[in-house]
Design brief:
43% of the residues lie in helices and 24% in strands. The protein has 10 helices and 11 strands. Strands 3, 4, 5, 6, 9, 10 and 11 form a 7-stranded mixed beta sheet that branches. A two-stranded antiparallel ribbon has the order 1-2. Strands 7-8 form a two-stranded parallel sheet. α2 (18-25) packs across α3. The longest helix has 25 residues, at 59-83.
């Protein structure tokens, strides 16, 4: 069993096709297929079912996959730790970020970070919180940026900042001229929110229930950008993080705080306690902290 064979297995499992895996690994497909077959012969079990629509892990493949990720993560960490004896901030940096943060917080931070550390090769992965927890636990990503709670016994979690949620309204909405809006003014409003898989939805609805407010939810979407476009067309209003308002340049939408206790979320960064923290990972955490000063 060789490291490159495990990398090929992981690539096929994640892309679903031998051709895509070969392209990702930078090798010819016949070479990759031969190495996977060689490993299957060594283990005495097929690792993939070769189907017309792609490749699917067998039970043996599923059992190997977790070990492969751990072995490759350990090998990469060992290589990186030895390399970093020179004190360089370089190498790969894999970031996992939830979709309601990634487009707004990460690009400006990453731009400044790359200007200071050109030797780092970042990779950005956008997933919901549950998926980020899985990836961080398996070693697939180095850092996870999400909103609290971000619970796992093997994670170190560090809060970065807290931001309020704001109402987003069409610019010609009846409440658009108010400096702030009361909960009692929202009883008849149509609300647009994200699907339940997004932590922002649970945070929003949980806060409303604690206030004794029941939102009239008429539509759920996959992305905040979709929600914003629907607000512009007058299909409803929504509650969104303040960072969304900061990035919105449209004159057709306005953002207003709620009177009284305002809903909010706390943004945090997490890393695995048992994995080696690279110089790049440490430096990016500092870059995140600097962005909110």
């Amino acid at each position: 069993m060789e490291l490159h064979q495990l990398r090929y297995v992981l690539a096929v499992a994640e892309t679903g096709r031998f051709s895509r895996a070969a392209a990702r690994c930078g090798v010819a497909q016949p070479s990759l297929s031969q190495q996977v077959q060689k490993l299957e012969r060594e283990l005495g079990q097929p690792l993939f079912d070769r189907l017309s629509g792609g490749a699917v892990l067998t039970e043996a493949g599923q059992r190997l996959l977790g070990h492969a990720r751990a072995i490759l993560a350990a090998a990469d960490a060992a290589r990186q730790e030895v390399h970093e004896v020179k004190g360089e901030v370089a190498g790969r940096l894999s970031l996992g970020v939830i979709p309601t943060i990634a487009p707004y917080l990460i690009p400006p931070v990453l731009k400044r970070f790359m200007r200071a550390h050109a030797g780092v090769e970042p990779a950005l992965h956008e997933h919901v919180t549950d998926r980020l927890i899985e990836q961080l636990a398996s070693g697939a990503i180095d850092l996870a940026v999400a909103s609290l709670p971000l619970d796992h016994p093997l994670f170190h979690v560090e809060a970065l900042f807290t931001e309020p949620l704001l109402l987003v309204l069409p610019s010609r909405h009846r409440l658009a001229e108010r400096p702030a809006v009361g909960w009692d003014e929202l009883a008849e409003e149509r609300f647009l929110i994200l699907h339940e898989m997004h932590c922002l939805t649970g945070q929003t609805l949980g806060f409303c229930r604690r206030q004794g407010a029941e939102l009239n939810v008429v539509m759920r979407g996959e992305q905040l950008t979709t929600i914003l476009h629907m607000v512009t067309l007058g299909l409803g209003i929504s509650l969104v993080p303040k960072m969304v308002a900061g990035a919105d340049r449209s004159a057709r939408r306005v953002y207003r705080p709620l009177r009284g206790e305002s809903p909010q979320r706390t943004i945090a960064v997490a890393w695995h306690l048992s994995r080696y923290r690279t110089n790049a990972s440490r430096a990016f955490v500092e870059a995140l902290k600097e962005s909110e000063k």
